[in-house]
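Notes to self after the Tuesday call (sharing in case useful).
The group wants a holo model before anyone commits to mutagenesis around the pocket. I volunteered. Ligand is 2BA. Logging inputs and output together so the record is complete.
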Amino acid sequence: MKMVFAIISKIDEDITVTALNEAGFFATKLSSTGGFLKKTNTSIIVGTEDDKVPEVLDILKRYAGKRVDEMPYVAPSMARSSSGVGAPYVTVPTNAGGATVFVLDVSHFDKF
Ligand code: 2BA
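Result:
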């Protein structure tokens, strides 16, 4: 048995955990903080059989992997209010997601 421990972006946690559950995996999510940037991220723990690890990694890659998202951007000069609501915007390509994954051997697994 293996334990997959993955640190992902907080924004990807719901879709990733839902996809894991729908594929039949048990998952635990922990709120965590990056030691370097001090930004909140999410750690996901999945315990599974050795031969299912590739499937877990595929799901993590698909739903939490690195990608480029188009994010709305309102130029400060165009913002009519401090929130920018209703202002014209453009989208700019922005790096998003990313998963740091550890796969560990589990010497013993039990549920009491
Ligand atoms: P990533 O390498 O993509 O790491 C994202 C987050 O994953 C990290 O957040 C940390 O929470 C976790 N993580 C990554 N590698 C880890 C490991 N070997 N052991 C335990 N946790 C790990 P942050 O620590 O806030 O780092 C955010 C980003 O800053 C990193 O993105 C990396 O690009 C950069 N970074 C982190 N530590 C660095 C360092 N010592 N020197 C230079 N750049 C660093």
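Two things stood out.
The longest helix spans residues 53-64.
Residues 13 and 42 are 7 Å apart (CA to CA).
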